[in-house]
Amino acid sequence: MTDVLLTVGTRKGLFTGRRRDGAWEFGGPHFNAQAIYSIAIDTRRETPRLLVGGDSAHWGPSVFHSDDLGATWIEPQRPAVKFPPFTEASLERVWQLHPAGPEAPGVVYAGTEPAALFRSEDGGESFELVRPLWEHPTRSKWVPGGGGEGLHTILTDPRDPRAVTVAVSTAGVFRTKDGGESWAPANKGVSAVFLPDPDPEFGQCVHKVTRDAADPDRLYLQNHWGVFRSDDSGDSWTDIGAGLPSDFGFAAAAHPHRGETAYIFPINADADRVPAERRCRVFRTSDAGRTWEPLSAGLPQGAHYGTVLRDALCTDDADPAGVYFGNRNGEVFASADDGDTWQQLFSHLPDVLCVRAAVIG
User: Fold this and answer.
1) For residue 105, what is the enclosing H or E element?
2) CATH of the domain at 261
3) Is the dihedral of CA 125, 130, 131, 136 positive or negative?
4) How many domains does the chain have?
């Protein structure tokens, strides 16, 4: 069976799992007592590089990296992510770490709070602010969501390293086609039922966006109320929430190989943030959102209250795909067969904030 590395960021440290020959081995915590909001596994290198956005209550936020699968960690002597003086801003959190594809070796992006995009060309050891997005003319009207004003989603286009899509809570989706020199909102069709104008150009509370494996122009979006699909890289969006027990939620992940296949974890409501109908279920579409099926074999069957946050659902790149999620109960579940069946890997962890996995062998 494929060798997989699983990383779990929690409110109090980083935990790891390694599946070899079908058996799991577990380790951690690393960064004891730090909140781990972002993780990336950069598999473009001969030995994968792990990148972690930690947040110490005493020392503040930082980005660490490891080139030996977490045996040792390096923190740069100077902050990897730092706002320039002219911004009059200070880093509160690194919400996202995203290695670009093989078309842009060495490039890693970071999304932060306050909402900003940073770019690294040295594998994540140092970052520079992408200034045109920071200075976007709409920025003065961006409003923080319930979790803050965070740039939490970064998608690079495998066909063009200059094309990048980001999502901000609560500003919506923005895109660049010229390497970050200019940015445009990409929210047409994404409703904002909580605003006086339910169809604004920007201001949507986007929770997560993921890209289809077979069609790079197809994106799936989990909004604060609403699940949407775009077939034109974000030029327009279509509601695909019919058939779900709730279209509120935080997480979304695409299958790594199968087109039209994506996963979400519905939440009851914004005012009742527990699993939809109090049942622990991942929902999968295999036809780009036309229909949805609940996946629960091996998951808890009784009343359940474990909320899954926006970065706590992921897939690896195995075939069949591994699917993983963690919740605020401190539980982590894994499927090795595209989500058909599940097993529990962790219990009683601190609050799970993010989960990432990748094939490493």
Assistant:
1) none
2) 2.130.10.10
3) negative
4) 1
What whole-number distance in Å separates Cα of residue 225 and Cα of residue 239? 11
Indicate yes or no: pTM above 0.70: yes
Give CA–CA dist 213/263, Å, rounded: 12
- Using 50, 70 and 90 to split pLDDT, how confident is the model at 1? low
CA 74 to chain centre: 23
pLDDT in tens, 115-125: 999 999 999 99
CA distance 183 to 176: 5
CA distance 264 to 223: 11
Distances, alpha carbon 219 to alpha carbons 240, 288, 319, in Å: 12, 9, 21
Contact between 108 and 97 (Cβ < 8 Å): yes
CA distance 122 to 36: 22
From residue 270, how far is each of 221, 238, 274 by CA, in Å? 17, 21, 9
Question: In angstroms, rounded to a whole number, what is the distance separating the alpha carbons of residues 351 and 255?
Answer: 25
CA atoms of 323 and 261, how far apart (whole Å): 12
Q: Which two tokens stand for residue 80?
A: 């990897």
Round to whole Å and give the CA distance between 130 and 93: 17
CA angle (330, 228, 238) in 5-degree steps: 175
pLDDT of residue 255: 98
Q: Where are the beta strands (DSSP E) in 205-271?
A: 206-211, 219-223, 227-230, 238-239, 248-254, 262-269
| DSSP state string for 270-333 | TTEEEEGGG---EEEESSTTS--EEE-TTS--S----PPPTBSEEE-S-SSPPEEEE-TTS-EE
pLDDT in tens, 131-167: 999 999 999 999 888 888 999 999 999 999 999 999 9
User: 340 near 321, Cβ under 8 Å?
Assistant: no
How many other CB atoms sit within 10 Å of the CB of residue 119?
18
Domain extent, residue 220, equals: 4-359
**Can you tell me the distance from the alpha carbon of 304 to that of 68, in angstroms, rounded to the nearest whole number?**
37
How many Å apart are CA 250 and CA 150, to the nearest integer? 14
| Whole-angstrom distance, CA of residue 227 vs CA of residue 191 | 10
Integer Cα distance of 190 and 198 in angstroms? 9
State the amino acid at position 79 in one-letter form.
Answer: P
